[in-house]
Amino acid sequence: MKKKLLFLIFTLCVAMATVAQNTGVSVQGIARDASKAALANKNLNFVFDVQTPNGTSKYRETQNLTTDAFGVFSHIIGTGTPQGTSFNEVDFSTEHLKLVISLDGTVISDQPFQYTPYAYHANNGAPTGSVMPYLGATPPKGWLLCNGDPIPNPTTSGAALVALIGNNTPDLKGMFLRGTGRSSVNGQSGPGLKSTQSDTFKSHNHYVDLTTSSDGRHRHGYNDYAHSDSVPDHGDHGTGSGDDNGNKATGRNTEYAGEHTHTVKGNSNNKGDAETRPVNYGVNYIVKL
Description:
The protein has 289 residues and is mostly beta strands. It has two helices and 14 strands; from the N terminus they run E-E-E-E-E-E-E-E-H-E-E-H-E-E-E-E. The protein has helices at residues 117-122, 159-165; strands at residues 7-19, 22-32, 43-51, 57-66, 72-77, 81-82, 98-103, 106-112, 131-134, 143-145, 221-226, 241-242, 248-253, 284-288. The strands form four sheets. The chain has a five-stranded antiparallel sheet with strand order 6-4-3-7-8, with no helix packed on it. Strands 1-2-5 form a three-stranded antiparallel sheet, with no helix packed on it. It has a three-stranded antiparallel sheet with strand order 9-14-10, with no helix packed on it. The longest helix is centred in the middle third of the chain and has 7 residues, at 159-165. The radius of gyration is 44 Å and the shape is rod-shaped. Residues 1-22 and 236-240 have low confidence and may be disordered.
């Protein structure tokens, strides 16, 4: 005789689990008959249907489950037999989904998914507007590339992000991220929130090391010749070396002179690249819907 089930008491735990490398939602419940007695050790045919609030099915699967001695059954949605799309295609971040459970063709539970305390605290891992580096070319579900493109579904799934940053994702191609506000370390300010700073180079001096032997100082030497017409051919006079006519030559030097400065200027032969940058590694930035 077929037993009629009036209700099941479910404990729905919106927790992500890994079973045979599949991600799913853990469900546990107690099956009872009309007299509220637990259906112990019974094989039951369940249908699990993930739906939108208006009843549109996003994922549906069937699964035969056997209760234990207390009528308790457990299942991970995503590991049953799918009736269409894959469970991995369900985007839990975009809508307030619910789980409809049927047994032998009768709906026995119709409840929205609820957060567990830790999942609620984490807000699904990242709040809307979070930006993070990503090593893929295609963003995961619930995320968009930061490439300046229009945000899809701006009035539905993209509405929260549009309200936060506008109609387009931030264009972070070729950019570094920097905290906004003034640094307490060096007193320098980052860009304003959701704005950019242009590239620049800190003001600095160039120093040319000039030693005393090459600082531009120098002397000029010359010979001072004096002679006497009344004294023919005689020996040298004075401290200089003479000639046969009695002339004497005295060597003299000017004082140091010619001190000057050097100005270092740029020219068309400057060396370097088009920007100043540290060593870096290429990633895509993605933003949370």
